[in-house]
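Summary of Year 1 activities. Much of the first year was spent building the evaluation harness for sequence design. The harness presents a backbone, in tokenized form, and records the residue chosen at every position. We chose the following record to illustrate the format because it has been used consistently in internal testing since the harness was completed.
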């Protein structure tokens, strides 16, 4: 009798294993940070245009510990809204990457969102591919009047050397830039007029696709002084010029570096504001603009992000046999 009971239990166990679903093999994972309302049919945030392109006919997949459901289509493209800030986004990313419903062993990741741009480096509605991801924090800061006049007021803290900066795969970044550099970007009359308040040539031009360092902090830093500090940190860490201020990239990179690696990670950001006011505007006025004084161009920028990013997503899927095992050397 005990033998029969054992056999029945074994058969039940084998049967249960047999009906378990195979993990979804993810080719490309698209990570937005926030959505304004729903995923379609209203004002678009960072994920809606991706959803409308890839996930309209898909069912949500609940992941314990993640802010929002994951959506996956039949081509192996998945995506989700992770949450704003380093903690919210990275905790969602870790929950998703470690979830048994997905196979991320060959996946490419696109961190997709908006950010600020220094007027010396870019303009409203630009779309920028990150070459480096840097943490704006993880150091010591002090008030300028408590230090040496004219000297930096930031010092990196020892012990964070491996997590305060990440250089992304240059072959993958170059591929992304090459595929998307000629995309016709959206623009608006409001954004065009706003740019003219600035004197820098880069701030006044039409939007384009660029590449450079993305620096993440949990505070929205503004003003020429803090912008200069971000550039100082980028130079201190041996990275490219600071191009985009954002809140999540380096934290998501740390999660991926501990799990599946960052060789297949891309960071894609659209510029929706300048990181400082124009010459006739104080930093506080820039932070809290009067009615009619905002930058404009948000709707166009989030559309531009998807227009640029889809070139890479579609290329990877269409050429999956060449990219499944990594970015080809040539």
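For this record, the design step produced the sequence shown next.
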């Amino acid at each position: 009798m005990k033998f029969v009971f054992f056999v029945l239990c074994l058969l039940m166990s084998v049967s249960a294993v047999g009906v378990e679903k195979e993990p979804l093999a993810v080719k490309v994972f698209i990570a937005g940070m926030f959505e304004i309302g729903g995923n379609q049919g209203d004002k678009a945030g960072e994920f809606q245009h991706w959803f409308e392109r890839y996930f309209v006919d898909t069912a949500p997949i609940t992941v314990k510990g993640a802010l929002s459901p994951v959506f996956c289509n039949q081509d192996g493209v998945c995506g989700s809204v992770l949450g704003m800030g380093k903690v919210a986004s990275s905790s969602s990313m870790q929950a998703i990457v470690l979830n048994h419903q997905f196979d991320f062993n060959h996946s490419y990741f696109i961190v997709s969102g908006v950010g600020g741009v220094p007027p010396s480096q870019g303009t409203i509605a630009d779309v920028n591919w990150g070459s480096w991801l840097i943490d704006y924090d993880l150091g010591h800061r002090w008030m300028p009047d408590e230090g040496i006049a004219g000297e930096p007021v930031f010092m990196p803290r020892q012990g964070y050397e491996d997590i305060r900066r990440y250089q992304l795969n240059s072959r993958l970044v170059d591929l992304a830039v090459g595929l998307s550099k000629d995309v016709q970007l959206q623009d608006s009359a409001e954004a065009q007029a706003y740019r003219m308040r600035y004197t820098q040539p880069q701030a006044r031009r039409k939007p384009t696709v660029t590449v450079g360092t993305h620096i993440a902090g949990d505070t929205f830093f503004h003003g020429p002084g803090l912008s200069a500090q971000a550039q100082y940190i980028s130079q201190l860490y041996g990275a490219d010029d600071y191009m985009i201020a954002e809140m999540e990239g380096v934290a998501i990179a740390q999660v991926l570096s501990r799990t599946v690696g960052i060789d297949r990670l891309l960071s894609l950001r659209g510029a929706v504001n300048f990181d400082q006011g124009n010459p006739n505007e104080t930093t506080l006025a820039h932070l809290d603009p009067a009615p009619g004084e905002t930058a404009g161009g948000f709707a166009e920028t989030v559309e531009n992000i998807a227009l640029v990013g889809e070139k890479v997503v579609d290329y990877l899927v269409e050429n999956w046999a060449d990219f499944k095992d990594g970015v080809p050397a040539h």
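Residues 298-318 form the longest helix (21 residues). Quantitative recovery figures across the full test set are reported in Table 2.
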